[in-house]
Write a structure and sequence with these properties.
two-stranded antiparallel ribbon, 97 residues, mainly alpha
């Protein structure tokens, strides 16, 4: 099954996120080895985008919440754990010193 967003095909998870947000993921998360100048420029661009699109933060939260709700078992690899056998407690009589 193919997924299209705004006429563009999303091939990978990253493509889907970028097309849904309208920006590259690296803009928000950064890249390994970026310099302080590159980081400052990236953060300035991100601030400008948020200033121009004040609803974007709410939209991103909605997308993330929907993804977590729909894919929680796969995302968190949730496996029920067996409960350990309960240990019987010794009852001590008398006052503790």
């Amino acid at each position: 099954m193919r997924t299209y967003i705004g006429g563009n095909q999303a091939v990978s998870d990253t493509d889907f996120i970028e097309l849904a947000l309208g920006t590259p993921v690296e803009l928000w998360l950064g890249v390994d080895g970026e310099s302080e100048m590159e980081r400052a420029a990236r953060l300035d661009a991100a601030r400008d985008i948020l200033a121009d699109n004040p609803q974007m933060a709410d939209e991103v939260i909605r997308i993330a919440a929907t993804a977590i709700e729909e894919h929680a078992p796969e995302l968190f690899n949730v496996v029920p754990m067996a409960r350990p056998a309960s240990r019987s407690r010794r009852i001590r009589k008398g006052a503790a010193a």
